[in-house]
């Protein structure tokens, strides 16, 4: 998915009738940031991409599944039908991506060794909850920091700045949900 990110961003921007400068202004980033992403010369962190998409506005799920087209009422979603809406070493596999008017975003999150959602804290509307399935993740929510291991869970208001960072020596897997869907 990463290889397509720049082309996809340019296509969405053009379909919305926005210049790079206008999108940058709306998203609160520099003009060159949009240009570098569209040229695939930089791979934005999850929080940076979310900030850019907020300039449309568009969720990450909408961005990554745009054009997938299949509007269906499925119940089961095999692994190969869960698109990765994450970036780089942070993978977010979205369950039910093609469903119209989803009320929650259910994710299988995979953080490679050393993976981080970025120096810039993430903010969005709603609540988020999850359980660590394997590995060790450092979660920062506002001024609170905790290292969570397998079986540990969390629940927080997403309007608080937050960040996830793999501080262990193995991949981390988390199952999470947020409402309303930010992906």
Please give a structural write-up.
This protein folds into 2 domains: 2-65, lambda repressor-like DNA-binding domains (434 Repressor (Amino-terminal Domain), Orthogonal Bundle); 79-179, Jelly Rolls, CATH 2.60.120.10. The chain is built from 5 helices and 8 strands, in the order αααααββββββββ. The chain has helices at residues 2-15, 20-27, 31-38, 46-53, 60-65; strands at residues 90-95, 105-111, 127-134, 137-141, 144-148, 153-157, 162-166, 172-179. Strand 4 (137-141) and strand 5 form a beta hairpin. It is globular.
Radius of gyration from the alpha-carbon trace, in angstroms: 16 Å
The percentage helix is: 10-25%
What structural class is derived from the secondary structure elements?
alpha+beta
Largest sheet, strands/sense/barrel: 5 strands, antiparallel
H/I helix tally = 5
| Poorly predicted residue ranges | none
The CATH topology assignment of the largest domain is Jelly Rolls
Strand runs, count: 8
Multimeric status of the protein: single chain
**Which CATH architecture of the largest domain would you pick?**
Sandwich
How many domains is the backbone divided into?
Answer: 2
Strand order in space, largest sheet: 1-2-8-3-6
- Give the H and E element order: HHHHHEEEEEEEE
Tell me the strand percentage band.
Answer: 25-35%
CATH H-level name of the largest domain... which superfamily? Jelly Rolls
Please tell me what the overall shape is: globular
What is the mean predicted local confidence, pLDDT?
A: 88
Terminal Cα separation, in Å? 15 Å
